[in-house]
């Protein structure tokens, strides 16, 4: 179900107006609160099709949604990674040190979901529990340019890290990336769609080894392959 937009918190006045009540006159909230609201943010699922999605991305999305029908694959909604939940889980590992202020945390959002619709990272993820695989369908928008006309390598690295991270988290819990090794084999045209296919290879104690490849939609071009090492967080150790 599509819910209201996460980008701008809804104000109490707007909610009152929607219910037929008179909106309160606008007040300047003061410099400390001008740019954000402490009201509860309603999270939208960014992993569903939007008008910026190309035909390729929509077709692939539909194909994978079909694969979900027998339960072998699961669509991973972006709203499952709500910022407050992550902060809550993650705070366990910061223990007494508080390197980030509360008001900064309240504005936090996942890096890959911080661009306007269609300009940055457009993607959907699917997870196969039996095969321990995660697939990411990714369309890199115009703000992710590296070499003219092509996707920035760092943008691809971000999506590889995210896909491998989701693969690890879906299988095992809370982890941090310790090592990421990427071979860039063929540049990705800006605004095109690629498929990032990742799998969990091995678990050794707290260490999880994952790998992935990045291919064009027709599977003819191997754009990249990568391996990652994720370490399960030790609640006894502070991260800072
Ligand atoms: C995650 C929250 C939920 C989010 C949901 C949204 C999903 C989005 C997903 C987004 C994803 C985005 C993800 C991001 O952006 S994560 C952000 C980028 N990553 C970091 O900032 C991590 C920084 N590093 C650390 O904090 C620590 O080093 C960690 C926690 C990783 C390990 O420190 P810890 O003190 O706990 O462990 P240890 O030192 O006892 O080592 C343990 C074992 O590991 C081996 N080892 C360690 N390092 C390396 C290495 N580099 N190569 C090879 N091996 C290494 C080590 O030899 C030892 O092996 P052994 O002796 O036992 O055999």
UniProtKB/TrEMBL annotation:
Enzyme Commission number(s) of this protein: 3.1.2.2
Catalytic activity: dodecanoyl-CoA + H2O = dodecanoate + CoA + H(+); (9Z)-octadecenoyl-CoA + H2O = (9Z)-octadecenoate + CoA + H(+); decanoyl-CoA + H2O = decanoate + CoA + H(+); hexadecanoyl-CoA + H2O = hexadecanoate + CoA + H(+)
Subcellular location: Cell projection, Ruffle membrane; Cytoplasm; Mitochondrion inner membrane; Mitochondrion intermembrane space
Domain of life: Eukaryota
Positions of region (Disordered): 17-39
One Gene Ontology MF term: hydrolase activity
Regions annotated as coiled coil: none
Pfam families: 4HBT (PF03061)
InterPro entries to which the protein is assigned, alphabetical: HotDog_dom_sf, THEM4/THEM5_acyl-CoA_thioest, Thioestr_dom
Domain (Thioesterase) ranges: 149-221
Bias (Basic and acidic residues) ranges: 25-39
Keywords: Apoptosis, Cell membrane, Cell projection, Cytoplasm, Fatty acid metabolism, Hydrolase, Lipid metabolism, Membrane, Mitochondrion, Mitochondrion inner membrane, Transit peptide
One biological process term in Gene Ontology: apoptotic process
Membrane topology value: Peripheral membrane protein
One GO cellular component, as annotated: ruffle membrane
Signal peptide boundaries: none
Family statement: Belongs to the THEM4/THEM5 thioesterase family.
Protein name (database record): Acyl-coenzyme A thioesterase THEM4
